[in-house]
Amino acid sequence: xxxxxxxxxxxEETLPPLxxxxxxxxDESGLIYRVIAVNDGSSDNTLGVLQESAAEIPLTIIEHxxxxxxxxxxxxxxxxxxxxxxxQDIVVTMDSDNTHTPGLVLRMVRLIRExxxxxxxxxxxxGARTIGVPWYRRLLSLGAxxxxxxxxxxxxxxxxxxxFRAYRASxxxxxxxxxxxDLISEPGFSCMVxxxxxxxxxxxxxxxVPLILRYDKKVGASKMNVGRTIMDTLSLIARRFFK
Length: 243
What we know:
By secondary structure, this protein is an alpha/beta fold. It has helices spanning about 15-30, 45-55, 70-85, 105-115, 135-150, 170-180, 190-200, 225-240; strands at about 1-10, 35-40, 60-65, 90-95, 120, 130, 165-170, 205-210, 210-215.
């Protein structure tokens, strides 16, 4: 079974095409899957479009009455996934804004089946493409990647901040057993880095596949506060490096 976790906040326009693409790709592959969508206190019709999609795709909807942020939404979705998963199942995390290509899930699943514990969709592998991302965001992402590579070298990893990942369920269960809810303890988008830094303590096999990031398919402004994310990330680097 493949569990796809989608934290969602005000994504009424992007979720329907994303869910259609997930269904088309995974149905064609013959994989058994379930999408776990966490509606994180959306003020638009995100809940409505999810309920409509539930008639067409295997979908579990979890509601946060108020917006609690990416970290809490991700934690809720992952806990739901590991609660129902077997050790050989796979848990995938994706963004809900339709910028991630669901067809890549098939390659990520194959690498897990071949022996990897974690697979990251990376912007820095040969064959990766980034379309529609402003130049300053690309520069900041590249700078962050270089800093993390120098401060926390991790075999098999170039992209420390990508939220598009696949985990072997057994590995994810061990991590939650060890850290509890503190596995995802950082606020906002820096939570993805924090998870990866905690993974480094375990003898896990981590790999990457090249990501095609379609930022041109994003509707509306980014929900990431760039300044806040930079400060959170720098704080995380300092705390983890000297810990």
